[in-house]
Structures are given as structure tokens and as C-alpha cells.
Design a protein that fits this description.
Layout (H helix, E strand, L loop, with lengths): L11 H13 L3 H7 L1 H8 L7 E4 L4 E6 L5 E6 L9 E6 L4 E4 L6 E2 L20 E6 L8 E6 L5 E8 L6 E9 L6 E6 L5 E5 L8 H6 L6 E6 L3 E4 L9 E6 L5 E6 L4 E6 L6 E6 L3 E7 L6 E6 L3 H9 L9 E6 L6 E8 L7 E7 L2 E6 L4 E6 L2
Parallel strand pairs: 6-10
Antiparallel strand pairs: 1-25, 2-3, 3-4, 4-5, 7-8, 8-9, 9-10, 11-12, 12-13, 13-14, 15-16, 16-17, 17-18, 19-20, 20-21, 21-22, 23-24, 24-25
Helix pairs in contact: 1-2, 2-3
Length: 374
């Protein structure tokens, strides 16, 4: 089966895809317009048992929308494609559609988010890490790291009772000074945990990360209390993905440049920190549907290679990646996606389990990958 999506010649996702190929192969756009189905089929061909959903750009993170058929993806912009958005993936049809900014409602809750300076600017939206709360029924809260116009966590309410989920922006939490937020995880009491891979103003940031030296931070925010650093996170090199146990007592952090995953257990004071080496640059962390395992994905490359890709205009960075399943109790690792580049899919950031398949995200690709569980 060929991983594919439903296209319309007015669809912004299709136009982005066609435009990317036109840049890669001058003169190809007319051919693509005349024979789009055939072109897409060839370009999106399976690799063994691995299929793809193509025509989506830089889907850095994925989050399943409760018990629905929908998966939300973040479209992280780059210099080639500066406009970011959300994607909605239909897990039944294996299709994707971009959420037009005009379809996102702006209804600020100034009482709850009274320190938010104003609505998100969807013309410069740059979504990165996602977290969808476990509570809320058909109206859960979606926290989204945003780099567009401000470094912040934007707060949306999802309406999952509609034919397609409806996004309503409600407020924001401005990141602390010196933070470049990457990932967010919600706490049971209404707070959040946010990671920063480093201070953008630090001229030695790239060098520190390249050498695995301390850089970046992990902080938490609570209503009425503001920001504070998380005890036990000191000395990490490039904190990236983060998840929290359902009771909020255990925080798992992907130490990107440190090539390990840390568990900060706040069941005692001071917290107990345990770590496991992963032999890659770990990106996103995601709970398995059972809640008894964690998926950890990341780049099997050097920091310098990833930063060069990040700064480039490449449509696809063919950097090897891999995915582990981790036991949250023992931190034991089982490889579920071996190190490699699959077709042109590289620069993997993480994975979620959808039914019996593993969906893999990437910070620099025109597709996501769907892998068999092993």
C-alpha cells in the first residue's frame, strides 16, 4: 500500500509539496500539475512494510487526540517555508490536511491567562512541541510551544465533538528569559513543564551542545506562582522532549546533546534522578497507549550535523534516526525502529503508537513515516 493523502488543487499542503519539488527539480511543476496522482504515488512509494503520508512539512511532533481517529501534528517552519500551522491526520484514511489559520478561533480567557500579552499571531505561527491533556473529555487543553513572534506556550481548547477537531486559542504563557522552549508537558494541577535546549543569546551554545556540556534548562510554571527551575535538572546538555507520569511525580527528560534520558522522581525530597544512555540525540518522548511504555526517538547523528540541517533550506535532511521503546520503571530500552534513513525520511524526532503501527515525526521532511510495531 502507498502512504498517501487526499489532494485538492486548492489545498495549501499540496501546493507546498508541489512548490518544494519545483525547487528541487526546475521545470517539474507543470508535469506535477498534469500528473499529480502518478507523481505522488511514485514519490511516496512504500519502503518494504513502511508507508508514508507525504505532502506535509516538518512535522516535528505528533499527539493523538484522545480516543478519536485524529492525530495532531505541528508544522515547524524554516526559511524555505516560514508559515507554520497544525496538521490533522486521519488515522483511518491515512490522510492529512493543514488547518487554515482562519479556521482557528481566537477567544481569550483573560481571567485564567491574565499575564498573556495578547493573542497568538497566526501569520507568524511556529508550532513545535505539543501536549494534549488527559482530562477534558471532548474539550481537552492543547499546549503548544511557539517560536513565531514570541517564545511562548500557546493554549488552545480542542473541540473533539465536531466532524473535525476545532481549535480555539485561549491564552499563553510567555517563556522565561533566556529560554528557547522545545517541549511541553502538562501537570495534573494545571501547571506545565517546559524544556529549553539552550539560551539563543549564548554565543557558546552550539559549542557546548557539541561537546555535551551543560546548556539549557527545565522549568515548571504554575498558575499564580509563575516559573521556577526543576530541582534535579541541573547540568543537562540540551534538554529536549519531556513527559510526566499521570500523577505528576515523575518527569522524564530527553537530554538531547547528552545522549541520554533522565527520570526525575519527585516522590522524595530531594528528587532522585536516574539516567539511561541511548546512543542518539533523543528528541520527543511519548507515552504508549497502554501507559506502560515510553517511545523515544531521535537522530543517530552528531550535534553539528543536526544543527547544519536545522540552518539549511533542505526539504529533506537525510539524517539517520531510530526509535526505542522504554520501560518507565526500569529505563530498559528496546529498539523498535532501527537506525537509518527510510526512502528520504530522515531527521526523525519521535514516535507515537497508533493501533498496531508506529508513526514517526521529523523536523525536516516532507512526510511522516508509518512503521510496523516490532
Amino acid at each position: 500500500m502507498i502512504g498517501s493523502r487526499e489532494f485538492d488543487d486548492r489545498d495549501p499542503v499540496w501546493m507546498r509539496f508541489a512548490g518544494s519539488l519545483a525547487v528541487l527539480w526546475p521545470g517539474a511543476l507543470l508535469w506535477l500539475v498534469l500528473s499529480a496522482p502518478a507523481a505522488m504515488s511514485a514519490y511516496c512509494s512504500d519502503v518494504g512494510r513502511i508507508t508514508f503520508i507525504c505532502g506535509v512539512t516538518n512535522v516535528a511532533d505528533l499527539a493523538q487526540a484522545g480516543d478519536t481517529k485524529w492525530v495532531i501534528g505541528s508544522d515547524l517552519p524554516n526559511a524555505r517555508d516560514p508559515q507554520g500551522s497544525f496538521y490533522l491526520f486521519d488515522t483511518g484514511k491515512k490522510t492529512a490536511v493543514a488547518v487554515p489559520p482562519a479556521k482557528i478561533l481566537i477567544r481569550p480567557d483573560k481571567k485564567t491567562w491574565r499575564d498573556c500579552p495578547g493573542p497568538v499571531d497566526l501569520r507568524h505561527f511556529s508550532p513545535h512541541g505539543l501536549d494534549l491533556t488527559r482530562s477534558g473529555g471532548t474539550h481537552p487543553t492543547l499546549y503548544v510551544v511557539n517560536h513565531g513572534g514570541r517564545q511562548a506556550v500557546e493554549v488552545f481548547i480542542l473541540d473533539l465533538a465536531k466532524r473535525r477537531p476545532v481549535f480555539t486559542w485561549k491564552g499563553c504563557i510567555i517563556a522565561p528569559q533566556g529560554f528557547w522552549p522545545g517541549a511541553v508537558a502538562s501537570l495534573p494541577d494545571g501547571g506545565i513543564v517546559v524544556t529549553s535546549r539552550g539560551d539563543p543569546a549564548d554565543p557558546d551554545r552550539a559549542g557546548k551542545l557539541g561537546n555535551g556540556q551543560p546548556e539549557g534548562a527545565v522549568a515548571e510554571w504554575h498558575p499564580g506562582r509563575g516559573w521556577s527551575r526543576i530541582v534535579g535538572s541541573e547540568g543537562m546538555s540540551g534538554p529536549n522532549g519531556v513527559i510526566v507520569s499521570p500523577d505528576g511525580k515523575d518527569i522524564y527528560v530527553a537530554e538531547w546533546a547528552g545522549r541520554r534520558i533522565a527520570r526525575i522522581s519527585r516522590r522524595s525530597n530531594p528528587p532522585v534522578v536516574d539516567r539511561v544512555a541511548v546512543g542518539m540525540l533523543p528528541g520527543n518522548l511519548r507515552w504508549a497507549p497502554s501507559g506502560t511504555a515510553v517511545f523515544a526517538g531521535g537522530q543517530d547523528a552528531t550535534v553539528q550535523q543536526v544543527l547544519a540541517c536545522w540552518d539549511s533550506n533542505a526539504v529533506n535532511c537525510e539524517l539517520p534516526f531510530k526509535v526505542y521503546r522504554m520501560d518507565p520503571a526500569t529505563l530498559g530500552l528496546t529498539e523498535v525502529v532501527g537506525s537509518g534513513v527510510y526512502g528520504v525520511l530522515g531527521a526523525g524526532t519521535g514516535a507515537i503508537q497508533v493501533g498496531t503501527r508506529i508513526w514517526v515525526s521529523s523536523f525536516r521532511a516532507d512526510r511522516i513515516g508509518i512503521f510496523p510495531v516490532r
